[in-house]
Amino acid sequence: MRRSVLAVLALLVVAVTSQTIDDLASVEDYYESLDLVTAFSDDSNSSTISIGTPGVGYHTAYTTIGGVQTDKINVDKLEMTRTEYQLGILSEELMRSITSLQKRVEVIMQENKTYTVTSTTTKPPNNNTHYYYSLAPYSWPNCTGIKAVVNKWTQCPWKSVDGKINPAGKSLSAGHSLTYLIRDGVDLATSYYLFGNSAHEQKYTDNIRTFFINRATYMAPNMNYSQVVPDGPEDDWIGSRMGVLDTHGLITLLSSAELMAQSGGTYWTDSDTKGLQKWVREYRTWMETSRLGIAESKGRNNHGTFYYAQIAAFSHYLGEANATRAAVNKYLDTIYDGQIMASGAQPLELSRAFSLHYSYYNLEALGALAKYAQSVGLNVFNSTNVHKASYRTAVNFLIKNTLSTKNSENPANFLPMLETSANVYGDDKTYNYTDAIKYIRNETGGGDLGAVWLLWTRQ
Ligand SMILES: *[C@@H]1O[C@H](CO)[C@@H](O)[C@H](O)[C@H]1NC(C)=O
Ligand SMILES: *[C@@H]1O[C@H](CO)[C@@H](O)[C@H](O)[C@H]1NC(C)=O
Ligand SMILES: *[C@@H]1O[C@H](CO)[C@@H](O)[C@H](O)[C@H]1NC(C)=O
Ligand SMILES: *[C@@H]1O[C@H](CO)[C@@H](O)[C@H](O)[C@H]1NC(C)=O
Ligand SMILES: *[C@@H]1O[C@H](CO)[C@@H](O)[C@H](O)[C@H]1NC(C)=O
Ligand SMILES: *[C@@H]1O[C@H](CO)[C@@H](O)[C@H](O)[C@H]1NC(C)=O
Ligand SMILES: *[C@@H]1O[C@H](CO)[C@@H](O)[C@H](O)[C@H]1NC(C)=O
Ligand SMILES: *[C@@H]1O[C@H](CO)[C@@H](O)[C@H](O)[C@H]1NC(C)=O
Ligand SMILES: *[C@@H]1O[C@H](CO)[C@@H](O)[C@H](O)[C@H]1NC(C)=O
User: Is the pTM here over 0.90, yes or no?
Assistant: First the structure.
């Protein structure tokens, strides 16, 4: 094992053992500490809604206004926003998103950061810093019955504890680089489209070139070391199929790249589009042919949905309508039926430790898949599965729980699905999405007002 890795890991093991988990007993304590409630007794398939413990892996990802939703940018609606802004008639709510976007972009420009997986201080197991490297977020060493433990990482078998994030993974920088690249990219492209400041176009372009195109700093187009379970000799560590999920934010980033190419700038050129397309094509091939990629395509829960949403979005970016259509149909034919029950319950997500979080998360993927499907004439939003259920049924099911005071998931995380529903289905007396949005915003001090996606999911 390399010295640098040993030093980093030794520190982490100390942190892990002293602060969160000493031995297996505490893993079991953790399970027992989960506050489980049965919220849906009217539905035999609904499993239980489990309530996460804030501070113990509590998911707050989208409550941050700068957070990125998996989405396809609706250019027509963004154009409406631009026109109304120029005429000075933009609503107060959307003005908040504009102001918030401008502030974030100002910080991006001041900080002038570039992101690359190659800047990591911890090398992946093959020592090639072009490879993306992350740890399986919920995996922990189980040292019960193992004698003379010197190194938990290599001596103890690893066990997944759903919902309990191992903080060790946070020291690896590739995931952060990718997340920030996407977050900044979507802001910069939207800002450039709205206001035409070429400095924003340049920053966007430089970031994309650094991450995907320039040979010194590009990321290798595969996820062989994503969500690694660090079990056994280090040279044998390999990613897990779930690591394919780590790239789901590329769906939105590619949508922003398409927007950039339509924005009429001169810094972003055809060769940037071609360079990014080359990367995307290679990565899609890896997804479709590698052992890990193929295994992830069979994931029945949000993993499978995000897999096909990625293939659909990547194919769209490559201009291959047939491949987009094929990905959507594969999802509908193989996974859709098992995901949403007649009641709208999503049992594969409800069985997770953070059941509400994952119920929203799967709909985030399904919503993006459905928007890419629209681009090739397929109407997934209105397609029902074998249980006569759809995205809409699932959203309606979640409304009653989201608005209940019994859960600790931030209801603001549900707003993007309600906004999409208001757009796609419209309100009726039973399910008034506009009303639910108002209610959640009021309950959460504004909810997602300020988020960039409102500029293109607006009514
Ligand atoms: C931002 O950083 C790049 C290098 O990454 C540099 O070329 C450029 O001059 C910097 N811009 C500003 C305004 O400092
Ligand atoms: C990576 O580098 C370390 C230290 O130089 C070495 O022990 C290890 O065998 C290398 N791994 C591979 C896969 O080359
Ligand atoms: C941990 O390892 C022990 C000993 O092999 C085993 O009995 C136990 O089931 C494991 N616990 C978990 C949660 O995997
Ligand atoms: C990914 O890992 C597999 C299995 O170890 C290997 O066969 C394949 O060549 C690797 N791919 C890349 C691009 O490194
Ligand atoms: C796309 O699919 C249509 C209908 O199945 C077929 O006629 C066409 O040749 C395909 N195009 C490409 C580029 O594969
Ligand atoms: C529950 O699941 C079974 C199959 O496992 C299905 O036949 C049944 O229709 C489902 N019930 C509801 C209420 O969705
Ligand atoms: C989808 O369903 C909604 C609500 O039933 C309806 O208003 C809308 O027209 C449908 N869209 C399409 C394209 O069928
Ligand atoms: C939905 O609620 C809003 C109030 O927030 C109300 O103005 C509207 O009429 C309702 N729509 C329907 C179809 O009931
Ligand atoms: C808005 O939230 C406040 C504080 O939670 C509450 O007192 C008030 O009744 C809410 N207003 C509406 C219209 O729901």
Answer: no
